[in-house]
Amino acid sequence: MALVWRSVFLVNLCKQANSPHVILHFNSGQPRCFAYWQEFQKCYAKTDSPKECTLPANDYLECLHHPKEMARAAIVQQEYARQVEKASKENKKTADAVADSVTVGVGLIQRQGSEDSKSS
């Protein structure tokens, strides 16, 4: 009885348009995860062991909360940050090497010591 009440409660909750977790399809007017919920509910009603319905349950939860997508996005973001940091360190090394090097003149400005060395 508790399972029936819970499933009816969740279906009614998903049908509420003002719920922040419900995104309605433009064409059908159903919540975006309603099809996954129906698959899970059908599996749960037909089976004797609830463990057999883990795949539809995981699909439904992924549709609702996107945990795998969020984890993948976090990994991609961390890798991007690592590459940016590595590139900035390499650019800093290059900039430091250029800053520490001797300035090469092109001969347009006469230096004090260079006039004396040319006349000798």
UniProtKB/TrEMBL annotation:
Keyword tRNA processing applies: no
Pfam families in the cross-refs: Ndufs5
A single Gene Ontology CC term: mitochondrial intermembrane space
S-S bridge residues: 33-63, 43-53
Keyword set, alphabetical order: Disulfide bond, Electron transport, Membrane, Mitochondrion, Mitochondrion inner membrane, Respiratory chain, Transport
Cell compartments where the protein resides: Mitochondrion inner membrane; Mitochondrion intermembrane space
Top-rank taxon: Eukaryota
InterPro entries linked to this entry: NADH_UbQ_OxRdtase_FeS-su5
Key word Oxidoreductase present: no
Gene Ontology BP annotations: mitochondrial respiratory chain complex I assembly
Protein topology in the membrane: Peripheral membrane protein
Role of this protein: Accessory subunit of the mitochondrial membrane respiratory chain NADH dehydrogenase (Complex I), that is believed not to be involved in catalysis. Complex I functions in the transfer of electrons from NADH to the respiratory chain. The immediate electron acceptor for the enzyme is believed to be ubiquinone.
Family, similarity comment: Belongs to the complex I NDUFS5 subunit family.
PANTHER family: NADH DEHYDROGENASE [UBIQUINONE] IRON-SULFUR PROTEIN 5
Name recorded for this polypeptide: NADH dehydrogenase [ubiquinone] iron-sulfur protein 5
Classification lineage: Eukaryota, Fungi, Dikarya, Basidiomycota, Agaricomycotina
